[in-house]
Structure formats: C-alpha cells, structure tokens
Design goal:
Layout lengths: L1 H55 L5 H24 L1 H32 L5 H24 L5 H9 L1
Length: 162
Amino acid sequence: MEVMSSLSNKSNEIENEVIFLSKAHNINCKRWRKRSRYIGIPTAVFGIFAGGSVLTEFGGEDYNKFIVSASAFLGALFGVLDKQLNPSERAASHRSASLQFEKIKNDVFMFRDVRLKSSEFNDPDKNEVIVNQFDKILDSISQAKNNAPVLSETAKKLANTD
C-alpha cells in the first residue's frame, strides 16, 4: 500500500505541474497571437496605403511624397518586426506545448485514477509494470519540457493565479 500511496502522491504533484505548464503555454499562445495581429494588420494596411499612394503620386504634390514615404517606411518596419519576432510561429509552438502537457495530464489521470486503483501491489511483476508506466510518464514530461518554448515570467504568474 505504501507504493500505491507514494505513486498516487507523486502523480498528484505531476498533474499539478503539467496543468500549470499547459495554462502558461496557453497564455503565451494567446499573447503571441495578439502580437501577430498587432504587427500583421498594420503591415498590410501601410503596404496597401503606400501602394495606393504611389498610384496617386502622379499629381506631384509634396504631401503625397511624404505619405508614400511614411507608409512605405512603416510598412517595411512592421514587416521586419513580423519577420524577426515571428509571432504566429511562436503562438503555434506554445499551443503545441500546451496540448502536449494536456495529453500528459490525461495520462497521469488515467494512471492514478484507473491503473493504480485497479492494481494489487502484492505481485512484484505487476509492481514492475506499474513502475515502468510511471517512468514513461516521467520521460514524456521531460521530453515535453525539453521541446517546449521558453515561458515568459508574466505567463507563469498568470498561470499561478488561476
């Protein structure tokens, strides 16, 4: 019974950790999606505006030249930000990590609430199988953490408050 209690307690700790990580990555995903919109929309607007202004440039007025130059500059600036920060890719990587931790949470739940409760710990062979399953969960957590993008401190704080 001590083994079952120990595995159950450790499973609870792991479940809490992966819930936290899933929430934090989900928060980061949402933040990067917003940044993608904040950068992508102005890039398109300034690009369209600069292109349209070039067509009206034939009048030769000075303010048209300023509008064309400013629009082209701002469009290029937002384009560089989009390319360097790559917010849509970052959002996707955080979403993927969040889903991976959700899957691990489900695996831990199944292990703790189904496998452990239905097992008898008198048989050493069964104990070995259960320990191996638990080790696989630990390996999947380690792998998920290694593959996950870095979390922001803000996302960590927000995930803790939920």
